[in-house]
Design goal:
The chain has about 220 residues and is an alpha+beta fold. It folds into two domains: about 90 residues, Ribosomal Protein L25, Chain P; about 80 residues, Ribosomal protein L25, C-terminal domain (RNA Polymerase Alpha Subunit, Chain A, domain 2), CATH 2.170.120.20. About 15% of the residues lie in helices and about 35% in strands. It has four helices and 13 strands. Strand 5 and strand 6 form a beta hairpin. The longest helix is centred in the last third of the chain and has 12 residues. It is elongated. The termini are far apart.
Length: about 220
């Protein structure tokens, strides 16, 4: 597996003063986990915005710290953003031991075309977006692909038990949890044509002083 490298710098500014860093385009970072102390670090906002979408929370990356030798395998564990502007505020990285299994949420990607959509005008739904797995850090899959070409009617569905992964990856999500299915198209209710009594009722409203008839 090719692992992305991220270089972080030591951070001396902590607490409320970190807002001054953000104003300069620098994001505060923490690296924690293992038998090491939590490290207060920082990185350029532009660099993090480039790397975060590539790794999500289940792809390992090698974190190097300025002034120290060697890299540490880490996973993104929390990304804090401004609730209104979505501006990046803080990132936490979890340091892991590559010889010890960890748990991770892996994105589910649907591939192929469901006949129930193409031929019966159904709608493909995906109620489950990620699947929880356990394995060694370097064996965590970047994503799980599921083929929906077997969904040729509205009775069939794909479940977690249908997911096939490498032998060294264990699925932890409940096997009966639904991943995807095709639902029938919505049928618009036909307009009910009013009879003579309905028409008389409208006329009665008009006689009572109504100046508008709503159709």
């Amino acid at each position: 597996m090719d692992v992305l490298n991220l270089k972080l710098d030591p951070r001396e500014i902590v607490g409320k003063k970190v807002k001054n860093l953000r104003q300069k385009g620098i994001i505060p970072v923490h690296v924690y986990g293992g038998n090491f102390e939590t490290l207060a670090l920082q990185a350029a906002s532009q660099l993090l915005r480039s790397i975060l979408p590539q790794v999500g929370t289940n792809v390992p990356l090698s974190v190097e710290i300025e002034g120290k030798k060697g890299g540490q395998i880490c996973f993104v564990r929390e990304v804090q953003r401004h609730p209104v502007t979505e501006e990046l505020l803080h990132v936490d990285f979890l340091r892991v031991d590559v010889s010890q299994s960890i748990e991770a949420e892996v994105p589910i990607v649907l591939v192929g075309t469901a006949p129930g959509v193409r031929e019966q005008n159904g709608t493909l739904l995906q109620p489950l977006q990620t699947i929880l797995v356990s394995s060694l850090p370097m064996d965590i899959p970047a994503s799980v692909e599921l083929d929906v070409s077997a969904l040729d009617d509205f009775e069939k569905a794909i479940y977690v038990r249908d997911v096939s992964l490498a032998a060294n990856v264990t699925v932890l999500s409940p096997p009966d949890e639904m991943v995807a299915r095709v639902v029938p198209p919505r049928i618009e209710a036909e307009e009910v044509v009013e009879g003579e009594e309905g028409i008389e009722g409208v006329e009665g409203v008009e006689d009572a002083g109504s100046s508008e008839i709503r159709e």
